[in-house]
Amino acid sequence: MLRFDHLLGLGLAGFVFAAACGGGGDGNAASSSSGGGSAPACTTDAQCGASDPCKTAACVAGACVETQAPAGKLVLDGLVPGDCKRKQCTAEGTIEEVVDDTDKPDDYNPCTLDTCTGGMPSHATDPAMEGAPCGTNNQIVCSAGLCVGCNNEEQCPQGGVCHKVVCNPMGATNACGLEIDVGKQVSNADPGDCLRAVCDMNGLIVPAPAPLDVPLPDANECDVESCGENGAVVHTPQPDGTTCGGSTTCKPSSCSTGACVQMPLPGTDVVTETQVPGDCRTTVCDGMGGTLDQPDDMDVPPDPTATDCTGPVCSGGTPSTSPKPQGTACMTAGATIGMCDASGNCI
């Protein structure tokens, strides 16, 4: 546990996630050129981005050109608020860390003075606050640099986003303090990038793996995307034989070891997807990935009048009717059972 009088540099909870991820450069959208190579077309400086935090990029004659940034330019990459230091560019274009006593730390304790001296943070007792009320709704008081008199955490001054407030028993007077809430999830702004923002042991907000995130599927039908334990996207192959690529009977394709591949073309396989039962025709593969429509005199239409002496037939791919075989049972006009003659009459 950290007591307020022992906290040094814990004004870090406001550290932005983007800074924790790092990035190099000014973060503008377009890429840039340092001369001699190809560069994207541009019309304004805003379309150019520097490749290094100690360079600037500008649009010159339709191309992005980089120059060295002036000495003293603030570098945001790796910025740690409240550490009494800052990073800046040198005249040579390198990055240096310098003392910045205006970058004061915050220990979230109203009973102390947060100061920087020669680049070193400190939290000395604030004499002006001795005996003054502190904590939630000013329920307790400052004593020797501590907010004391608490009976529960709700009475204490609240810390940063990465802190847990504690009421620490200290005899007759209970003092408020903070603990760093290591591993606390601060945000998960993009649930598809396999990363989330959490608190580390120093109270900084840093990126961490988010294995329960679900990334968007990529263009490959033959794999499934998921998040790994290390924060990277994992591509798991679909089972071999899974159809893909708009596979059809005459132009089949399926997954093989995570890739969509063309299968051997069939010869005259029947294309069952487009068949129309009883139309006296059939569609088959032409062996080149296409289809071929041809007569099928075995594809006889259903008989709409099963009790008479004529029935449907196919002839050269064309449906027609023909007398049923002589002697076939039928129903006469008088509603009696008869037999078909050779001419298709029921007698």
Automatic annotation (TrEMBL):
Keywords assigned by UniProt, alphabetized: Signal
Signal peptide span: 1-18
Source domain of life: Bacteria
The protein's name: Tryptophan synthase alpha chain
Organism: Polyangium jinanense
